Amino acid sequence: MTRAAERREALRITAAARGLDAVLVTNLLNVRYLTGFTGSNGALLVRTDGRDLFGTDGRYTTQAGVQVPDVELLVDRATVSALAAAAVRGRTGRLGYESHDLTVDGLAALEKVLADAAAGGAVPELASVRRAVEAQRAIKDEDEIESLRRACAVADTALAELAAEGALRPGRTELEVGRELDARMLALGAEAPSFETIVAAGANSAIPHHRPDSTVLRDGDFLKLDFGATVDGYHSDMTRTVVLGDAADWQREIYELVAASQAAGRAALAVGADVVEVDATARRVIAEAGHGEHFTHGLGHGVGLEIHEAPGIGQLGAGTLASGMAVTVEPGVYLPGRGGVRIEDTLIVTDDEPELLTLTSKELLVL
Amino acid sequence: MTRAAERREALRITAAARGLDAVLVTNLLNVRYLTGFTGSNGALLVRTDGRDLFGTDGRYTTQAGVQVPDVELLVDRATVSALAAAAVRGRTGRLGYESHDLTVDGLAALEKVLADAAAGGAVPELASVRRAVEAQRAIKDEDEIESLRRACAVADTALAELAAEGALRPGRTELEVGRELDARMLALGAEAPSFETIVAAGANSAIPHHRPDSTVLRDGDFLKLDFGATVDGYHSDMTRTVVLGDAADWQREIYELVAASQAAGRAALAVGADVVEVDATARRVIAEAGHGEHFTHGLGHGVGLEIHEAPGIGQLGAGTLASGMAVTVEPGVYLPGRGGVRIEDTLIVTDDEPELLTLTSKELLVL
């Protein structure tokens, strides 16, 4: 059984437990997760009786044959409608759908197709499955973890190469550094950067999500780099903050503080740990040093086919950690107008110690 | 008045004409279009009385101040809910929303917030505005056209440089060429490639949407490159097909055929032209040469903040062209197992001749 087939099997069990005869999966990342299909148009009908159907349009007939060899293929320009009609033909009683993904217009169109296809006969009853597939996706299998390892390695290597070549030096602009980091990740095999790379120098490093601009790197600056690589569709996410030239005392002080908080956060990643408590463990370190108000965001988040996915690790999070979750730990201290530090790794929660996927050193790097 | 303010003014007129007191814009690209905001979380309340509200979360307070200086700012983690509550406080009678964007869960949450905020008072009546903002976006203003010109120039230059450096030669792989093209566009100032760059060599060129893989470029191959650059959020889109080494007669034949079809399609881009007829004009050239069945997709599509947007130019399209529309013209002939040709430009429809933004030659390039 392929990984994708195993994942469909798990969804089938969820569907049966909820009294559904089938689930119409429209979220494209969920479709990818459940089939391996990477095209831009596809939907999946998972049936409790095992007769699944994958729908896409004519552009992807060949690709679907290669990527989804183990699911019956339905080629139609109106993918979702065609699968809905097939569900009616298959006498589906209760049909699950993704209410967090389907738009209001999409639901109206689906209801119309079901009624038309039923032609006076029984119309399937629609019931939301909520984020059932996302809940599955929060726990990574070995294939996914391997993709994340490779994505993290690409980002690690890109940064190491740029640092070794002296690309991170005073006189260059944030934009130049960001573009080189992106280009290097692509050259190392990334499909794309995980998100718009953040390069923030000097006072800009105090802005958590600064967009790189023409700001010139200067001697004595903090340089904060938040970036990642996508491999097999899986996103890595890392942040390192370095100092250009000699580090001032205040820079060493907040760097060591953030590093200590980050270590505490990583150590708190255990199976069964409450995500609010994991955040609190790392946050306490910063708050006790009097910088609580300068740590303005959550501690971390899940990563996978999306750069932000379940679980959220923060004060407003909910739930506990489970083995196989891929998460970031990324505390920061930001002093407005002066500079800020964030240190972020991607890790896998395990029954033992968490597996650290971001391997770049967290010693303060003075370039 | 800024461009963004002009665009909000146009939407205000549409809203008033439809009897709406306000429109809640949730589609992030529509929000960007109407405000200039480029962050990942934002929504906009456009009110017919002119008191607009822009909502985003605390990460973007500074950015919103810079990018959206002319709209009152509301900072709240739950952006849409906060704007909805503000609409209730402003005694909105009929509230427009984007039913093609809002999910089923999103609508349910919106209805709850409206009822809660009304606290027993009058609850605004919801009415879909459909794709009102997208309809505005189909007609580009001069700022948008200038961004598209720059996006097209980046793609043109990247290809010219790679060709001049001999990067498109036998022995290299599709993936290598694709990554170099992407990296070059970034180095030339693109924010990102417009989409996953297509590099298709030899028989792969007969697959309209081939994903680049480790296929090695060989002497005598067609090499099809479909790619674009994003600048200011605007997407360029171009395809060129070259021959590596000497071109065989069959290759020259289908190349000239596609070029003639493409020229006919470009010549048909006139204000008031029916999009189905524009497609038919180009398609006829290919069909009359006996290759109708080998041209398996539509002739073109609008481009802008999205790589595919209105208008669609194809057999299933609807509507007529208007001055200021940005469209692609991209016929192709694909001979399965042998090879295919596609030639694609991005152009602006004008009252006069269309303005050609893709400036790379369409002569058959033999490298």
According to DSSP, the number of beta strands of chain A is 19
What's the number of helices of chain A?
10
Head-to-tail CA distance between termini of chain A: 50 Å
Largest interface: A-B, 35 and 35 residues
Relative helix content of chain A: 25-40%
In words, what does this structure look like?
The structure is a homodimer of 367-residue chains. Chain A has 367 residues and is an alpha+beta fold. The first copy, chain A, folds into 2 domains: 3-136, Creatinase/prolidase N-terminal domain (Creatine Amidinohydrolase, Chain A, domain 1, 3-Layer(aba) Sandwich); 142-356, Alpha-Beta Complex (Creatine Amidinohydrolase), CATH 3.90.230.10. Helix content of chain A is 36%, strand content 20%. Chain A has helices at residues 3-17, 28-35, 61-67, 79-89, 104-118, 132-137, 142-164, 174-187, 249-267, 275-288, and strands at 22-25, 43-47, 53-56, 72-75, 94-97, 125-128, 192-193, 198-201, 222-227, 229-231, 234-235, 238-243, 300-302, 309-313, 326-329, 332-335, 339-342, 345-348, 355-356. Chain A has a 6-stranded mixed beta sheet, sandwiched between helices. In chain A, strand 18 (345-348) and strand 19 (355-356) form a beta hairpin. In chain A, helix 4 (79-89) runs parallel beside helix 5 (104-118), helix 7 (142-164) crosses helix 8 and helix 9 packs antiparallel against helix 10. The N and C termini of chain A lie far apart (50 Å). Chain A binds chain B through residues 38-39, 58-60, 62-63, 77, 99-108, 128, 179, 182-183, 186-187, 191-193, 196, 207-209, 211, 296-297, 316, and chain B through 38-39, 58-60, 62-63, 77, 99-108, 128, 179, 182-183, 186-187, 191-193, 196, 207-209, 211, 296-297, 316.
